[in-house]
Amino acid sequence: MDAFDAIPNHVVIDILNKVADVKTLIRCRSVSKRFNSLAAQSDSLLLQLDQFLGAAEPEPEVNSPVASFFRSIFKSILPIFSRSAKPAETPKSPAQILAGFNRIRNLDVELYGGDANLEKGAAVKWKAEFGETLKSSVIVAFRSATVNASATESPVNAVETDSEFVCGLKTRVVWTINALMAASTRHHLMGDFVKEHKEMERLTVRDRDEEGTVVMSAAGMKEYREAEARVDEKGLGVERVRDRTEVPNVRMSMRHAPMLKLKSGICLEAATLVVVRPSGVSSDDNDAELATEAFAADCMYGEAVAALLKRRRNVLEMNSF
């Protein structure tokens, strides 16, 4: 017997969980019958959608005369093979790509880019938690960032006038709406997958640029499946099909600083912190905890959150959309 065959199955599965990358694991499944069986039992996966949906950056073409000649020959004979060969069907959704994996508990999905269309220099970073619909979202945004250690720091405890808050309010609301729409689109993208994998404990969907993150806990996914089951029982499934999840009526706690200097010397222009929850949910006591936890792993954004939490809170209501 081959020495590798003597390795217990649970050890092989543990190794495959360390690999995590879905595309690599799909290749592993073609190695042998044993690998095909064990790779399907991996419970911690990383799905990079650009590898499957063709959004990765194309490799640059070589423009030498020889390369151009062979490229022209290939293009001329390609139609002949295209008519005789049946094209392979490309998976269109995470549920289709992950259909062969039956014990997923933790899944990280990486998208190929951010969603917000911002003016040059501006940045928005957000984190949203979902169940059936939006549970909470924390958004940090600023118009520009400069390094200026000698700049005079704006006092974070200074009282902001109403006119200062209103100035640029439209831009801050647009930032918030963009973030919520991006989050609801990602939540909808994973709907079929969540319904099929009932042993899931954690789902995270983020983009490669680290602009935004959607998370769903085991309780949130259970809530989503139960809501979908109720809809299916009433025969309304087709009517619910759309490109994103509907955002409910929400209450926004918004804090803003026209100029915010961080301890690192970075100055943020029009720095904004928004904590979003569905209307009717008490949020006064948990804003600081929720916002701090959302950006605890990011030094700059975490520092910005800590400073903005000391600013005056303005509460706004937004209808469902």
UniProtKB/TrEMBL annotation:
Pfam families: F-box-like. InterPro entries: AUF1-like (IPR044809), F-box-like_dom_sf (IPR036047), F-box_dom (IPR001810). SUPFAM superfamilies: F-box domain. Residues 7-48 form the F-box domain. This is F-box domain-containing protein. It comes from Brassica campestris (Field mustard).
